[in-house]
Amino acid sequence: MTETLDITVTKTKKSRLEETDFNNLIFGHTFADHMFVADYADGEWKNFQIVPYGEIGLSPAISALHYGQAFFEGLKAYKHADGKVSVFRPDKNAKRFNKSAARLCMPQLPEEIFVQSIATLVDLDQAWVPAKANHSLYIRPFMFATDPYLGVNPSHTYKYMVLIGPVGPYFSKTLRVKIETHFTRAAEGGMGYAKAAGNYGGAMLPGRKAAEEGFDQLIWTDAKEHLYVEEMGAANAMFLLDGKLITASTRDTILEGVTRDTVITLAKEWGIPVEERRVSVAEIIEGAKSGKLTDAFGAGTAATIASVGSISYQGEEYFLSDPKEREFSQKLLKTLDGIRYGNIPDTHGWNYIVHE
Ligand SMILES: *Cc1c(COP(=O)(O)O)cnc(C)c1O
């Protein structure tokens, strides 16, 4: 950290910790006592504050609501057995935050501000980080446009905020997924690589239709031909095909996941060949039929490693092996958890310690 951020802290008068049921957490429903807020105006970030979590007053004309100048990040903090609290690879999220900002004509946020706002907030509310297997504190930084005008122009003022809240496992079962060949999430030249709010609103209808057909998730395909696999819901789709780890190479339509990068790094260290390239639907279906597709999962912060149980394509359902028997993703989960919860050495420097 080059400089210490001057943050004004206003603590809550009454903590909600006691009344929170940590055994029944629904993702995104529970918030810790505090949140972080900063304002952008006159070309600079200012008013760095930590305040009690709660409603904020805004004009109904803010351009975020009308034109979608809004985006977010997602990362997690973990509690170690010795009481330490660490955030997983926040530097990566800080960089991606600024990629999203650039695509949406929004201001850059210095990486130190991003990391320090999170570190200070999580440290203050460290009692909210669950000390339980598969549980963590979800961190949601986001930025949105606040100019109260209806002109379709980039805003001059913005808010940067961070919300935090305890979470349990995101998916509790093996997923039944469908390869989507009608709707698309992102197109070349679009903003699929940004965590833009609008990308997720647009994915809701296809997601609901898939759910109505009995699927847990869908696998997006390319906008042009629907012949190549892109992502799985809001996670990167990864496959172990013929002993090689295969995933879509990053480009306009692919969100460059921190989990994706972590999985690729570990796989390479374990001597598994990694191919980042275009992945065809045909080779995945062929692999599912022949048994050469020995592992398939979605990789993301919220979902962690979400195992795919079956893949449906053009009305046919192809079943994969029992996830518990899959050597690769089991080893991944064990290693990832081991590092995040401080039970195995963090040789990559992935854990950013916010509370000793
Ligand atoms: C957030 C996200 C991911 C996963 O990124 P992580 O950094 O691993 O959490 C993948 N795809 C999409 C579309 C996402 O929004």
Structure description:
The chain is α+β, with helices and mostly antiparallel strands and 356 residues long. It has two domains: 8-169 and 349-355, Aminotransferase class 4, branched-chain amino acid transferase, N-terminal domain (D-amino Acid Aminotransferase, Chain A, domain 1, 2-Layer Sandwich); 175-325, D-amino Acid Aminotransferase, Chain A, domain 2. The protein has helices spanning 63-67, 90-103, 111-124, 197-201, 204-212, 258-269, 281-290, 327-340, and strands at residues 8-9, 34-41, 44-52, 70-72, 75-79, 85-88, 136-145, 158-167, 175-179, 217-221, 228-232, 235-241, 244-248, 274-277, 279-280, 293-300, 304-313, 316-319, 351-355. Strands 1, 2, 3, 4, 5, 6, 7, 8 and 19 form a nine-stranded mixed beta sheet that branches. A six-stranded mixed barrel has the order 9-10-11-12-16-17, surrounded by four helices. α2 (90-103) packs across α3 (111-124). The relative contact order is 0.15. The chain binds pyridoxal-5'-phosphate. Pyridoxal-5'-phosphate binds next to β12 and α6.
